[in-house]
Structure formats: C-alpha cells, structure tokens
Amino acid sequence: MKNDTQDLVEKGIMLPLMEAFYTIQGEGFHKGTAAYFVRIGGCDVGCHWCDVKESWNPEIHPPTAIGAIVEDAKEYSETIVITGGEPLTWNMAPLTGLLKDAGMQIHIETSGAYTLTGSWDWICLSPKKIKLPTPEIYPVANELKVIVYNKSDFAFAEEQAAKVTKDCILYLQPEWSNREKMMPLIVDYVMKNPKWKVSLQTHKYLNIP
Ligand SMILES: C[S@@+](CC[C@H](N)C(=O)[O-])C[C@H]1O[C@@H](n2cnc3c(N)ncnc32)[C@H](O)[C@@H]1O
Ligand SMILES: Nc1nc2[nH]cc(C(=O)O)c2c(=O)[nH]1
Ligand code: SF4
Ligand SMILES: [Mg+2]
C-alpha cells in the first residue's frame, strides 16, 4: 500500500473493502429485513470456524474511499450493515458520519475486540473467547449473539450476558458446521433458560449471500 493511502486507511477515510451486497439480514433481531451489507477486510481474532476467512488479510482488499461506499449504498437501502472481517479494526467514525448524513440506519456486526468507534443505530455484539470485547461496548450492545460450537459455549454465553444491559436481546446461534450436533442442545437450553432466543443463519437456508 502506498504511504498516502495507508495514512487514509489509518484515519478511516479509506477502508479495505472486501464486498458490498444487497440482501436480507439473515441473523439475530433484524433477520428478514432487507439491508445493504458492507464487508470490510481485516480481522486478527482468528475464530477457527469463521465462515469468512477470506476477509482476514486486509492487504488483499482494495482501499476504497468511504464516499464511494456510501454513494453505492444509497442506491440500494436505508438500512446498512457494516460487517467484516472485524470492522472495529478501523476507525468507523468517518464512515458512519457520512452514512448518517445520508439518513441511513446503520447497524454493525462486531466481536467488540477493538475500541468502539463510529455511531450506530444497532450494535450486534458477538463476543469471542479468544479475544474478549473491550468493556465500553457492553452497555451499548443492542443484541448479544453468542456462537455455540460446543457445550462450553453455554457457560461463556452466561458470562457475557452478565455484562450487557437488561434490554439487550440475547441470542444463541449454532456454529454452522456443527449445527446438527448443537441445535438440539440449544433448543433444550433455550426452553430451560427462556431469556435466550435462537438465532439461525437463515440466509444460508435461503441460499442468498
Ligand atoms: C463473519 S462475522 C464478521 C463480524 C465480526 N468479526 C464478528 O465476528 O462479529 C459475522 C457474524 O457471523 C458469525 N459467524 C461467523 N462464522 C460463523 C459460523 N461458522 N457459524 C455461525 N456464525 C458465524 C459471527 O459470530 C458474527 O456474528
Ligand atoms: N444475509 C446475511 N446476513 C448476515 N448477517 C450477518 C452476516 C455477516 O456476515 O456479518 C450476514 C451475511 O453474510 N449475510
Ligand atoms: S471475529 Fe468475526 S471475522 Fe474475525 S475470525 Fe471471528 S467470526 Fe471471523
Ligand atoms: Mg456472514
């Protein structure tokens, strides 16, 4: 990356854009709602089951001016989901500022592993054991979405739920490759602990992005 471009990426004026697409939010509270997804490259959390490992290396995704991202987004939807990769790798203030000026509803999908930047209408926090969220995100998370890969994830989910507000909506989402094994346990857990809800990756059943 050229030095001047690198400088703009560090400031959040340009971002390594992996892909952007109009689809239906498949997961969590807003599942079923049409939204424009912006997937920003770069993540070093390293979940072994991550379903978008191609996003991890920011170097392979072109630095893109945030103005261009917003111009494209406006053509499709008033609801924008910023995801990745880990979007909080970068300073999200400039991008969310422009999206707000354009009157958009701005959602984020994040592990919370890095400092919370940007201003958001909806924060989906999906914490990871291997790189825990920074403390400032817990009071502002609108939904907590814990991925269940094995039994130990139920205890982790409870630890994380103890840190969010009482209004934060609690979801258990099966890890995709292990869903057949874990789904019955999740169903049983939610019936015994009804403060939790089930979240499925419905876009994968619908065969959409
Ligand atoms: C690819 S991540 C990108 C955003 C951010 N890095 C994060 O992890 O929240 C988007 C969402 O997909 C979830 N996810 C990733 N791989 C998954 C898998 N194999 N099965 C179920 N959910 C998965 C993440 O936990 C997160 O909620
Ligand atoms: N349809 C659809 N819904 C999603 N919700 C969260 C996603 C993500 O990868 O962040 C995602 C995604 O990749 N596709
Ligand atoms: S934090 Fe998100 S993008 Fe990063 S490895 Fe984990 S699931 Fe994938
Ligand atoms: Mg996804």
Automatic annotation (TrEMBL):
<dbReference type="Pfam" id="PF04055">
    <property type="entry name" value="Radical_SAM"/>
</dbReference>
<dbReference type="InterPro" id="IPR058240">
    <property type="entry name" value="rSAM_sf"/>
</dbReference>
<keyword id="KW-0411">Iron-sulfur</keyword>
<feature type="binding site">
    <location>
        <position position="43"/>
    </location>
    <ligand>
        <name>[4Fe-4S] cluster</name>
    </ligand>
</feature>
<dbReference type="InterPro" id="IPR013785">
    <property type="entry name" value="Aldolase_TIM"/>
</dbReference>
<feature type="binding site">
    <location>
        <position position="50"/>
    </location>
    <ligand>
        <name>[4Fe-4S] cluster</name>
    </ligand>
</feature>
<keyword id="KW-0479">Metal-binding</keyword>
<feature type="binding site">
    <location>
        <begin position="49"/>
        <end position="51"/>
    </location>
    <ligand>
        <name>S-adenosyl-L-methionine</name>
    </ligand>
</feature>
<feature type="binding site">
    <location>
        <position position="47"/>
    </location>
    <ligand>
        <name>[4Fe-4S] cluster</name>
    </ligand>
</feature>
<keyword id="KW-0456">Lyase</keyword>
<feature type="binding site">
    <location>
        <position position="209"/>
    </location>
    <ligand>
        <name>substrate</name>
    </ligand>
</feature>
<feature type="binding site">
    <location>
        <position position="39"/>
    </location>
    <ligand>
        <name>substrate</name>
    </ligand>
</feature>
<comment type="subunit">
    <text>Homodimer.</text>
</comment>
<dbReference type="InterPro" id="IPR024924">
    <property type="entry name" value="7-CO-7-deazaguanine_synth-like"/>
</dbReference>
<keyword id="KW-0408">Iron</keyword>
<feature type="binding site">
    <location>
        <begin position="126"/>
        <end position="128"/>
    </location>
    <ligand>
        <name>S-adenosyl-L-methionine</name>
    </ligand>
</feature>
<comment type="pathway">
    <text>Purine metabolism; 7-cyano-7-deazaguanine biosynthesis.</text>
</comment>
<keyword id="KW-0004">4Fe-4S</keyword>
<keyword id="KW-0460">Magnesium</keyword>
<feature type="binding site">
    <location>
        <position position="85"/>
    </location>
    <ligand>
        <name>S-adenosyl-L-methionine</name>
    </ligand>
</feature>
<keyword id="KW-0949">S-adenosyl-L-methionine</keyword>
<feature type="binding site">
    <location>
        <position position="83"/>
    </location>
    <ligand>
        <name>substrate</name>
    </ligand>
</feature>
<feature type="domain" description="Radical SAM core">
    <location>
        <begin position="30"/>
        <end position="209"/>
    </location>
</feature>
<comment type="function">
    <text>Catalyzes the complex heterocyclic radical-mediated conversion of 6-carboxy-5,6,7,8-tetrahydropterin (CPH4) to 7-carboxy-7-deazaguanine (CDG), a step common to the biosynthetic pathways of all 7-deazapurine-containing compounds.</text>
</comment>
<feature type="binding site">
    <location>
        <begin position="24"/>
        <end position="26"/>
    </location>
    <ligand>
        <name>substrate</name>
    </ligand>
</feature>
<comment type="similarity">
    <text>Belongs to the radical SAM superfamily. 7-carboxy-7-deazaguanine synthase family.</text>
</comment>
<dbReference type="InterPro" id="IPR007197">
    <property type="entry name" value="rSAM"/>
</dbReference>
<protein>
    <recommendedName>
        <fullName>7-carboxy-7-deazaguanine synthase</fullName>
        <ecNumber>4.3.99.3</ecNumber>
    </recommendedName>
</protein>
<keyword id="KW-0671">Queuosine biosynthesis</keyword>
